[in-house]
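Sat 14:20. Reprocessing the chain from the morning session after the first attempt stalled halfway. Input below, unchanged.
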Amino acid sequence: MSEKLQTGFVKYDISLDGEEYSYQVFVLRNWTADKKWPVILFLHGAGERGSEGDDQTEVGIGPAIRRDQDSFPAVVVMPQCRRGVWWNDSKMEQLVTAALERSIEQFSGDRDRVYLTGLSMGGYGTFYFGAKYPGKFAALAPICGGVIPPRRLRQGQDSDTLAPYLEVAQSIKGTPIWIFHGSADSKVPVSESRKMAKALKEVGSPVKYTEYEGVGHNSWDAAYAEPDLIPWLLSK
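Finished this time. Tokens:
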């Protein structure tokens, strides 16, 4: 670590299997190596995909941090998903894992206080990584996400069965989760979050659910402006 640590939004490069990727880390201005820090992993939506390593900070948690940095007393890791794929792509999964692990090591992250949040495609990613790595994250905060992707829903695969949601709920059972969605979302049906909340309740897992009446796809601005969200996350 350099003696003159750069704080704020800092871009890093990482090489994985011969490919170069960029990700960003928000580093608190009062960061110090002599304590363990909570770590928030943020997964962006489909519109911020790319390879330049910047767009993922422009929507969602990034603008919320810029408005009030002191409300985010954590190290925030922001990888960027490549165009044409989702977070469950094997290479993107490798990127997420590598960026998170490197950041935990680099910034004295507390492995018992690692949190996961994301919006839209990143909300799906939050459920995906939470279910695939049970116990890794101390709490989850998916925003306008779900389990069955919108394209499959449009193809008529949206049924009344809770089976796929219950499968995910069983995997993340016991992990505190706060779900957000807008009731008027035309891109990701609010039924996705409603079903996940119902499934989590059915398996006896702790869940908070906030639905913004009349709000469309952009429920993330309201969610990240919730005064209780970050304190709730960091309390777990």
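The domain at 8-234 is CATH 3.40.50.1820 (Rossmann fold).
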